[in-house]
Amino acid sequence: xxxxxxxxxxxxxLQESLPLLLTALVCWFIVVATGNEEAFADHWExxxxxxxxxxxxxxxxxxxxxxxxxxxxxxxxxxxxxxxxEPVIQLLNIGNTIPxxxxxxxxxxVLGLGTPPVVLALCLVALLPIVRNTYVGLTTVPPxxxxxxxxxGMLPRQVLVQVELPWAFPAIMAxxxxxxxxxVGTAPLAFLxxxxxxxxxxxxxxxxxxxxxxxxxxxxVILLALLADLLIGLLAQLLTHPHTGT
Amino acid sequence: xxxxxxxxxxxxxxxxxTFAADRVSMRIAAGETCVLLGPSGCGKTTILKMLNGLIxxxxxxxxxxxxxxxxxxxxxxxxxxxxxxxxICLFPHxxxxxxxxxxxxxxxxxxxxxxxxxxxxxxxxxxxxGHFLHRYPAELSGGQQQRVGVARAIAxxxxxxxxxxxxxxxxxxxxxxxxDEFLAMQQRLRKTIVFVSHDIDEAVKMADxxxxxxxxxxxxxxxxxxxxxxxxxxxxxxxxxxxxxxKRLALIRVGSARVADAPALSQDRTVxxxxxxxxxxxxxxxxxxxxxxxxxGYVTQARLSAGVxxxxxxxxxxxxTSVSLDDNLRTAVSNMFRGDIGWLPCTDGEGRFDGExxxxxxxxxxxxxxxxxx
Lengths: 246, 374
Known about the structure:
heterodimer, A: mainly alpha, MetI-like fold, B: alpha/beta, Rossmann fold, 2 domains, 4-stranded antiparallel β-sheet, 17 helices, elongated
């Protein structure tokens, strides 16, 4: 890699991480302004432990959602399923308007208390944007490109891999970013049904009216959501060529 | 060779049948360029896409080099027909090399051969491989993208090439030169080409045969000069335009209309000699040549008889332009108009005098086909 490419890469990295850095700064300002540095320090051990737990349950929900979402999006975009695709997407859109808390509650009625209902709920929450973006990305490939691929003798699966998926790549990545941010942001509710994670600090802080405790739960959640978004964004950048945007 | 017999395509919508192709039969010989021409909606693109199965036939047969289309595996068929897509359609996420290598990769050529071939076809279409292989389509101009589109189609060296308005996305200035390059390339490669166009001038320039369509029916299938000189119907005559004789000018070489036994004299000869020669042959003018036999000017009987104060033709002549035997009549006529003169000396490949061409000779040559048909 040439030095100019390296420099532009570094600039990109800085640009992408700016929201995270600024938010971290603002959060720290709030902590200091409300005089909660000490509460933060006291909770440090809880924060690191719960944050790890938080990441694990988030990923447990997100990774299956990513795999299933991509597969479902690809399936729905195939010509044979186009007829059922629109109603399915509509259904998913309606599903998306159900508040996360309600999803968690519904999930609990099926799977009981503990981690499994949380993972299911997070998976459902993250699934919707991933399916929708994959589907939209794949159905907006210009017909000329599909015909060019087929006309040169590509089989349908070769058209999918060589033409459609690269075209839909930015949309798919955007779906993954939305999905993981939603999962991280929904995970605190896990505490309500015994699922662990940073929600424990937030809700116990609310219960005993300790502002410092609430902050030491809420701020890591915010930063984790931004970090997850950033990581997927960087992954997308890494796999994208500068001249194409795809 | 492409053999099309009774080919029909019916699109049905709202219980109404529309014929995009109506019992079309035609035969395109190997190595020939056939342009499918007609107004938009006449079915020319539908017919093109039936050739590689992108649009299924309603009825009729298509044979490519004697083999029925139904006997081909569809993917195999398409890989054996080069396809230049309308609007070029290079894939934006692939480098030029990857775009050009699509069909070789589908055919599972080994890597070294594919890479060698990619560089080779880029050079064929006039793009420096070292400069372009690793670029992306967005970095190229429209004309360059069009060249890559052609390179991609010929990468696996298919015997047949189909092209859907290949030069439509290029600006008029570049289109001209890309057409010329394409003609030169076709001279070397001798592919069987089927090519959709809506532009009569492009068709006349590129085609060995023109198939003119109207509402799915083949109105006329003929060589360009035949189409222009003998339109089969009022529709064809209308489509080719009121100036169709002028369009024929571009199709005929100066060599086939020139007068071979035209008088000429070297520039160091005298005025008297020139007058004597013109009198003897009953000519109004003669061409003056330099030492190497190249035309440099002309003299007319009227001016020399009026008396010129010069001994040799060199100082008595009027400078003249000439036209090569390989130029077309359009160029000759244009030069005549520019020089305000009714005739021009012709030159051979080395620039030496070789007869002359006059407006009368051009008219005679254009009228030949009408006299023969009478």
